[in-house]
């Protein structure tokens, strides 16, 4: 995978630290300040305004379902889990929140910067994949339409299947549309032409 | 009875970067000597030393030993690699590390006081000076560890943001001197300038080979295609010889600084170490590390890290590079970076100086591509940093 992160810059970012008042929360906010990120500590539940933060660090030790104003796994920003206990139940809960990175407690004076970089990247990569999968699913759903368009072209232009598919590709390219959109338009036109013939 | 505080002084005086190690070591010991001779300090500092021979993996064990012997402070480390090795030792031993060298940033340990420049204080002002004068096509050479990697990474970004290009990026293992292939590639790609983050003998061999290339082809003379460095020091110039003349460097200190404070400092150093003694930024920063430490101990009445830390950001410290302020937030020092050209006789002629100290920005958080703090050419109006208007 080609990963280029440039010189990551988090200036103007706002972070929420979802943790009861504690050294861990203080250490994170101290590191964030040095990196140029404003932060506030919130406990026990995130409010609607907190959902506008650019990143959330959440306590996985004392965290519970219902702390977040979104469905588990659907956070609108990158999440970093703060783990004190590495017991599988707690790790599992952190995974269920879709943590993009994690930090082990106790928190010292390092770790937050790389967690920011990794979480931002993982979040972006996850969203890009989600978008791509949705798009591919959409194309899969419309495959019968492409088949109908190819058959239509074979009929009207009296060419074989391969040539018809290439023809469809050329039409899509010329119209700067996807194969699926082009196929749909073609089938619609073809269908209405057939209707016109039938009624004639 | 005089109170004695043991201070760890941990530099490699042998090995691939011995010249820098010895210079920093001498700087620390000079300050120790001055403190001990000065009756206004009601204590003595006793140096505890170790010799890692330039081998990174030895630093942690030696730092552990110095701390076990009673040192609550270790002044030490030239390479970032050695600093990273010492941090666990000072964390575990409730001690502080005083690091006196320019480095690549991206660190802010609560256990380190940083007295060297980070990228917004070295490579950024260096490129702001070099790009408008020489062009935007650069070749990057470095020693194969984090200092070279990360500094070149920042360099790449600075060039990208100014529409420049990187014609090559090549690394040599620490201590290696086989630079022929590097030189051949440079001769072929014909950059506008070369960024050199090599250290020690690799750097000296490279500069000598560049001088040979320039003799063969004047297009590679420093007036047309300079080698620019962030870590070349006075103590190395004699070793390199006349080959470095004309090349460009940035540092937070050059011994050519023409101020009364610096003249007084040099006179004191030369009384102790001989009239011919050259002094570099590594020396000056290690010297200042011990001075700041001693002054903080005097004010706190203790050498305990938690006792002295509040005193460090609370005031400025007189130094040969001007008054120094150390941030309580980042524990990094604000510096007014200098740019110098190496002249015959191995003097750094200062050609540009930042009008005021630039606060360290270890994560380059304030870098926006076009607008970090300006460092104007001497006598010119400040301009936005790195906005290259004409080429």
UniProtKB/TrEMBL annotation, chain A:
A GO term, aspect molecular function: RNA binding
UniProt-listed InterPro entries: AmiR_N, ANTAR, CheY-like_superfamily, Sig_transdc_resp-reg_antiterm, WH-like_DNA-bd_sf
SMART domains: ANTAR
Region forming the signal peptide: none
Chain ranges of the ANTAR domain: 126-187
One Pfam family in the UniProt entry: ANTAR
TM helices/strands, residue ranges: none
Protein name, as recorded: Two-component response regulator, AmiR/NasT family, consists of REC and RNA-binding antiterminator (ANTAR) domains
Lineage: Bacteria, Pseudomonadati, Pseudomonadota, Alphaproteobacteria, Hyphomicrobiales
UniProtKB/TrEMBL annotation, chain B:
InterPro entries in alphabetical order: Peripla_BP_I
Superkingdom assignment: Bacteria
Protein name listed in UniProt: Branched-chain amino acid transport system substrate-binding protein
């Amino acid at each position: 995978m080609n990963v280029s992160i440039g010189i990551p810059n988090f200036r103007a970012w706002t972070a929420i630290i979802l943790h009861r008042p504690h050294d861990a929360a203080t250490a994170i906010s101290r590191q964030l300040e040095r990196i140029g990120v404003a932060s506030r500590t919130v406990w026990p539940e995130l409010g609607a305004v907190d959902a506008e933060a650019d990143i959330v660090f959440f306590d996985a030790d004392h965290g519970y379902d219902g702390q977040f104003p979104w469905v588990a796994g659907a956070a609108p920003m990158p999440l970093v889990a703060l783990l004190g206990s590495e017991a599988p139940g707690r790790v599992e809960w952190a995974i269920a929140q879709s943590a993009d990175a994690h930090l082990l407690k106790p928190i010292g004076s390092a770790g937050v910067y790389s967690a920011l970089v990794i979480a931002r990247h993982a979040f972006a990569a996850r969203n890009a994949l989600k978008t791509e999968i949705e798009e591919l699913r959409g194309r899969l759903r419309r495959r019968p339409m492409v088949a109908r368009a190819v058959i239509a072209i074979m009929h009207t232009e009296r060419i074989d299947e391969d040539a018809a598919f290439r023809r469809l590709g050329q039409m899509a390219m010329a119209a700067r549309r996807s194969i699926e959109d082009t196929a749909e338009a073609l089938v619609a036109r073809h269908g209405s032409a057939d209707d016109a013939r039938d009624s004639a | 009875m005089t109170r004695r505080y043991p201070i760890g002084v941990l530099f490699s005086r042998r090995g691939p970067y011995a010249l820098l190690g010895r210079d920093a070591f001498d700087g620390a010991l000079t300050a120790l000597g001055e403190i001990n001779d000065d009756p206004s300090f009601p204590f003595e500092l006793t140096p505890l030393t170790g010799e890692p021979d330039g081998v990174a993996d030895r630093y942690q064990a030696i730092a552990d030993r110095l701390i076990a012997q009673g040192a609550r402070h270790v002044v030490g480390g030239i390479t970032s690699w050695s600093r990273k090795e010492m941090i666990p030792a000072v964390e575990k031993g409730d001690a502080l590390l005083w690091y006196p060298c320019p480095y690549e940033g991206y660190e802010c340990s609560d256990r380190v006081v940083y007295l060297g420049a980070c990228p917004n204080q070295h490579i950024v002002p260096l490129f702001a000076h070099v790009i408008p004068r020489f062009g935007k096509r650069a070749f990057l050479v470095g020693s194969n560890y984090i200092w070279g990697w990360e500094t070149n990474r920042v360099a790449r970004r600075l060039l990208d943001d100014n529409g420049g290009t990187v014609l090559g990026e090549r690394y040599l293992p620490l201590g290696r001197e086989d630079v022929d292939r590097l030189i051949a590639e440079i001769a072929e790609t014909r950059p506008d300038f070369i960024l050199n983050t090599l250290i020690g003998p690799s750097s000296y061999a490279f500069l000598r080979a560049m001088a040979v290339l320039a003799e063969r082809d004047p297009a590679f003379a420093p007036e047309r295609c300079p080698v620019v460095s962030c870590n070349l020091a006075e103590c190395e110039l004699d070793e390199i010889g006349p080959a470095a003349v004309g090349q460009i460097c940035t540092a937070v200190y050059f011994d050519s600084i023409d101020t009364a404070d610096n003249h007084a400092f040099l006179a004191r150093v030369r009384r102790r170490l001989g009239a011919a003694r050259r002094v570099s930024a590594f020396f000056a920063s290690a010297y200042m590390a011990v001075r700041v430490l001693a002054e903080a101990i005097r004010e706190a009445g203790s050498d305990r890290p938690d006792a002295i830390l509040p005193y460090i950001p609370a005031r400025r410290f007189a130094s040969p590079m001007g008054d120094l302020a150390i941030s309580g937030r980042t524990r990094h020092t604000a510096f007014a970076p200098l740019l110098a050209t190496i002249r015959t006789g191995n003097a750094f002629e200062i050609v540009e100086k930042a009008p005021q100290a630039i606060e360290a920005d270890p994560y380059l958080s304030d870098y926006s591509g076009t607008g970090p703090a300006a460092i104007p050419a001497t006598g010119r109006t400040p301009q936005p940093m790195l906005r290259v208007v004409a080429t």
